[in-house]
Design goal:
The protein is 75% helix and 0% strand. It has 8 helices and no strands. It has helices spanning 2-11, 13-22, 27-53, 68-97, 106-116, 118-123, 132-158, 162-192.
């Protein structure tokens, strides 16, 4: 059901966004049947990729891998960060809605955030093969798809004019970048206290 709705958002976004607003899932269903599992995709595949396949730095043939213990800690922290990021972004979508004469519930805003971020979650599968070029290509495609869903769907979902939807979406995008910087800063802090990558010896 989640995948069919996502493909519907890509192929027939006007209908799917309006249908999602009219028939949103419950908040419990969103988190326990959607978000926690989608957030697990990048964490799981990156864990497997960094411990089993490894990666090589540009200009070097040496394969680098992480110890299972350090990769597990990083995967768990990444999973928690993604789940919390969805909650934070949903809260901001809900908070800003009042400035654009819209009155969605927090559950509806969480549904919008979840499906808008769907490409970013799916891109995590690329972690199975942690190559610099494949990561950059997959990330670019995922970010482009997410931005398209955001700008195309927000006005429809909120029932506001397209001009207001553009400003609203731009505000959400800026907040998303701030949240991303916050996650990166938190990651650096955790690395500083010892929860970071530990490389396998050659």
């Amino acid at each position: 059901m989640a995948h069919s709705r996502f493909w519907g958002l890509l192929t027939n976004p006007d209908h799917e966004w309006a249908n999602l607003r009219q028939h949103p899932p419950t908040l419990t269903h969103l988190y326990f049947a959607r978000i926690i599992w989608l957030a697990a995709l990048p964490a799981l595949f990156t864990y497997l990729g960094t411990t089993m396949n490894g990666w090589s730095l540009p200009g070097s043939d040496q394969i680098v891998r992480l110890t299972p213990e350090s990769a597990l800690w990083m995967a768990v922290m990444a999973w928690l960060a993604m789940v919390m990021a969805v909650a934070v972004m949903s809260g901001f979508v809900h908070w800003l809605s009042g400035n654009f004469n819209s009155d969605p519930t927090l559950t509806e805003c969480t549904a919008f955030t979840c499906y808008t971020a769907y490409p970013l979650f799916l891109a995590g599968i690329a972690g199975w093969y942690p190559s610099l070029w494949s990561t950059m290509l997959t990330g670019t495609v995922a970010i482009s798809a997410t931005a398209w869903l955001l700008y195309r769907g927000l006005a429809i979902f909120m029932g506001i004019p397209k001009e207001q939807g553009f400003i609203y979406a731009s505000s959400i995008l800026c907040i998303g970048l701030v949240v991303l910087v916050g996650i990166i800063a938190t990651t650096v802090l955790f690395w500083g206290i010892g929860i970071g990558p530990v490389y396998l010896p050659d």
